Amino acid sequence: MAHQQFTSKLQEEVICPICMDILQHAATIDCGHNFCLSCITQSGEAADSVLKCPLCNKIVRRDTITPNWLLVNLVEKIQAIDLSETQPETEELRCLRHGEKCHYFCEVDGKLLCMMCRESKDHKTHNATLIEEAAQSYQGRIRSQIEVLQQKQREIIQMKAQGEHKINVSMAQVELEKQKVITAFRQLRQVLKEEKSFLLSRINWLGKEISKGEKFYVISTETQLNYLRKLTDSLKSRQCLPPGQLLRDIKIALCRSEGFHFLNPTPVSMDLEKKLSDIKSRHDSLTESLKRFKGKEDAVTNSVYLPLEDSSSITPRKWN
What we know:
Herpes Virus-1, rod-shaped
């Protein structure tokens, strides 16, 4: 009996975890676990260069799968053992209390009974049947229970497949949203870069145009001031002349001074002021959009991605 149990345990140790049968052409992978060569080779996607160990989930390379010749030889020796030689003749079931052969099975207590136990006060009122009949009845119950367990196993496998499918779908959605975020922010960076270039180019242009106007304005005002100084100096010098010389061409001198009108040039043209105002408004709009964007970021920190609808307000446009 002990030899039979030892042999059975040996066979259990050489069972493939994938097909649940005796190892065929045993192979070992990097993590140390053993499988049938065909079972582990067909595991996972055939095109992949790596696979997961079905027992510990460690990632191993397919090209490291090697035959375990020591285990192959051991399996052959275990299979060569004739279990029928180790099977003892069926032992006679005898009552431990009376030493008699057991013929009955008590349905109430679940015990084997001899004739004396069957007629005793402990079991006389119990339902007892012949061992062979009880065994046949329980064989049916065992088969039914096996079917129940197998059905539960099928249901669990189905639920597991559905759960894994849901996880895969969710992971695909996560990756999709990740790519959306990357694309959206890449576009946003491009928009901001173009907007920066646009604003700086217009501001530099405005600076040059205002600088040109400044030169004209300074020259024009200085020229008129110089002419006004000359008129003033001319009249002051006449005040010191004798009456006859003072009155010489006095009307012309007074007419020139009285006819002087300052021609006030425009420092900055209305067109340039409007363009400068447009630049300021555009910059303010951009700043406000970024503030609203920042506010939404703070309010929805748990969102998968941030809305970018405000970026439309900073789309580069042509200068009018």
